[in-house]
Structures are given as C-alpha cells and as structure tokens.
Design a protein that fits this description.
With 70 residues, the protein is α+β, with helices and mostly antiparallel strands. 49% of the residues lie in helices and 16% in strands. The chain has a two-stranded antiparallel sheet with strand order 1-2. Strand 1 and strand 2 form a beta hairpin. The radius of gyration is 15 Å and the shape is flat. It starts with a helix and ends with a strand. The relative contact order is 0.10.
C-alpha cells in the first residue's frame, strides 16, 4: 500500500497520508492498540512540552516522533 501511495504522491505532486479510524469513529470501545497509541502520544507530547517545543505532529513511520509542521 505504501508503495502505491508513494507513486501516487509523486504523480500528483502532493503529500498523501494514511488515516485509520479510531475507536470513536468505529463506535466501539478502545482496543489495547488504541490505549497503547494514546499513551505513546501523551508521553511524546509531554516530553516536547517539557523542553518548550510545540508545533509538531507526534507520529511518523509507526513510532512516536516529533515532526515539525510546514
């Protein structure tokens, strides 16, 4: 899938992102994966705030990572 999206992104000249529906959109209870993701994102967010950083996305390539906007 990522290869297809990469080729489409190059052909269109724009960035394409994959989004998965969370438990709220699915209308069910949070899964263990939802809870682990929430914990990882919260930990990364607080880590950035402690250092005075802001204005970043917190997920890239399957792990918590500060990715600046823009």
């Amino acid at each position: 899938l990522m290869g297809v999206l990469g080729r489409a992104s190059e052909a269109l000249g724009t960035r394409i992102r994959v989004t998965r529906a969370g438990h709220a959109q699915r209308g069910g209870r949070p899964s263990a994966g939802d809870r682990l993701l929430a914990g990882a994102l919260a930990d990364a967010a607080f880590g950035l705030l402690r250092t005075g950083e802001s204005g970043a996305a917190l997920w890239q390539n399957g792990r918590a990572a500060a990715v600046p906007f823009g």
